[in-house]
Amino acid sequence: MFLWGTATASYQIEGAVSEDGRGVSIWDTFSHEPGKVRDGHTGDVACDHYHRWPEDVALMADAGLNAYRFSVAWPRIQPTGRGEVNQAGLDFYDRLVDGLCEKGITPALTLFHWDLPQALEDEGGWLNRDTSGYFADYAAIVAERLSDRVKMWITLNEPIVHMTFGYAMGVHAPGRTLLLDALPVAHHQLLGHGLATAALRANGAEQVLITNNCTPVWPASDDPADLAAAAAYDTMHNRLFNDPLFVGSYPDFSAFGVENLDFIHDGDLATIAQPLDGLGINYYNPTRISAPSTDLLPFDDAGITGYPTTAFGWPVVPDGLRELLVSLKERYGTALPPVYITENGCSYDGIEDQERIDYLDGHIKAIRRAQAEGVDVRGYFIWSLLDNFEWAEGYHQRFGLVHVDFETQKRTPKASYHWLRQLIAE
């Protein structure tokens, strides 16, 4: 069965940040620091999904969706990231999963979508190897409670983005600016994925995936310097988080001048490279790369022109998704498990959102072309069900199939929602 779904993330929609014993996350801290989020917006209330989830599940069912990808807030389960379990937090997700199952909607549960417990960040966050083990403990707790109904489990969401924006560049929580010194974050997230994979399976999980953000990399020209820069970017954005899973080793980091990899311990790569039941791919657009203009990184983002753009300014290149999927199949061959598009979507304003309809239509057709070229794609999750808290952009970017009035919390399905319902019905 092909999965037609939408995707959300806990901090972006739940609200209720101080209810039911939930602890503080790094996004609670970061969003309340002046200047970190546009116009001082926070996720304190967000879409109030914590209280309004039955309405949101009904919207999914009415659209004909047969799957829903959501994330669990780690601090709602373990307020300090380890130790005592908050049963009231588990109860919330138990109710949500029951509600989905009653509507015939397959739950696809993501364990980590960037809202690390602040107490763990105070001890180093993902720079601290111990966090990998705590993550596996948390995975076991959630799986023990929900694996009888949740069959699809995603360990991490976009570890490249969390490392780059959160630890290297500081534009997301926790706001560190370590540049290449953030590299241990990549390894500790992947190690956490591997340890959590074992813990999930030990507690009844049937399907275990990871979701990586991937992008086709286009060199700005045929100049050798641009080609080398594009290869370096591909290494950092795509291969850093896929090679250890499917090749069992890290790619060559020589272009980055990184020599000290002592954070990798014996046995780590075997833990990371356990077979997976699927790979989640989040795709938004290709990336065009040129030779570097500074010594900070071995590449520059050259930007893409000649394509329409979303309200976020991102280029709309549907065939880039086909290109990406085919390239992954060519790179990893039989090691590549079935693929699920776990995020794809666009920001546009308005209820009559023909641009979003055109965007989704183009990308669904790109998936079909990739399938015709031999890529085993088994699901498509649209980002997102609801307009929500869009990280550093606050409430200024609307990705939802359903419009949310953030003052009244009124939900209004957009034209794209009705279009999708018709498409699925056909």
From TrEMBL:
EC numbers listed for it are 3.2.1.21
By its UniProt entry, which Pfam families does this protein fall under? Answer: Glyco_hydro_1 (PF00232)
Q: Which EC class does it fall in?
A: hydrolase
**Keyword set, alphabetical order:** Carbohydrate metabolism, Cellulose degradation, Glycosidase, Hydrolase, Polysaccharide degradation
Residue stretches spanning the membrane: none
Reactions this protein catalyses? Hydrolysis of terminal, non-reducing beta-D-glucosyl residues with release of beta-D-glucose
The Gene Ontology terms for molecular function here are:
beta-glucosidase activity
Q: Which domain of life is it from?
A: Bacteria
PROSITE patterns reported in the protein's UniProt record? GLYCOSYL_HYDROL_F1_2
Could you say which protein family the record assigns here?
Answer: Belongs to the glycosyl hydrolase 1 family.
* Entry-linked PANTHER family: GLYCOSYL HYDROLASE, LP05116P
Q: What is this protein called?
A: Beta-glucosidase
Which organism was this protein described from?
Microtetraspora glauca
